[in-house]
Amino acid sequence: MGCSPSLFLMEDSTSRHGSSPDPLRGTGPTSNPSPDTTPSAPPDGSPAPSTDAYGDIRYRGLIAWSNRLEREWPFLTQQLASAPERSVVDLGCGPGEHVARFAYEGWRALGIDRSPAQIEDARTHHPTIAFEVGPMEELANLTDARFGAALCLGNALPSLDDAQMDQLLAALSNGLLPGGVFLVQWIDYAPILAGTKRALPVAVRPGTDGSEIVFIRVYAPDPDPRFVHFLPTTLELPADGETSLQLKSGHRIRHRGWTADEMTSRLRAHGFVSVDQYGGLDGAPHEPGRSQDVVLVAKKA
Ligand SMILES: C[S@@+](CC[C@H](N)C(=O)[O-])C[C@H]1O[C@@H](n2cnc3c(N)ncnc32)[C@H](O)[C@@H]1O
Question: Global pTM?
Fold first, then answer.
């Protein structure tokens, strides 16, 4: 399932059954947020702030990482081959598997994620690799280093509103070396914003003790046509062969549905000189209305 957006649980705001053992839950100090601690959306229309919105999503268990990396690796390395230096920062790195792969291949690699629980998971599994907790748009506060390449994979992008996007792209202008490559992948929101696509494919993954985890992800409209509400719902199918699906968590999250054209314009406005567009990390062309993902590969002057 790897790079398929069917496994990209994007953002989290509330959870149920917070204390039950659950393969989706992280082990970090913020891994059991309760619904009543969820911040509400501010009136200006920007996404709701969150302390650790991703704390209880265990991407390590949700994604078949070795399959995903094998599938994505040829395209990633091909696109990053022109980077002026073998150094990479992964923005919104989640459990850090891309960072680790680059580091093990000899790149200087840093993973950044605003979720302390995600970074704790990454550090636990890759203790020799560099990770920082913090918002990607505050890159300049998180590292003094400059990089040959930057990645933002797996639908981390729609977490950024317009001001945060400008902040990130301005930070990358400095954080990337001349000729540096910025590769970003997210779900194509055009049909979701238009209301013609209401859900991502259901995904079923192994849970613990023979159980299975089922993910249902539905989109609902927002009054602002640039935004959409994402409703990831987690169910568990117990191994007993008798019990029906059990609701484990349900979330309602506001996402900025960046389109390929909007992002291309913003990248150009921030000094990226070439922006190539693809429909996925397999390098397929982007076909509006057909591609599940948007991938942009932008080069800094
Ligand atoms: C769907 S996961 C993707 C993880 C990984 N990049 C992948 O491809 O599987 C999105 C990640 O982005 C992180 N994230 C969201 N907004 C962020 C921000 N503003 N700064 C840093 N990380 C952010 C979340 O904490 C989460 O771990």
Answer: 0.83
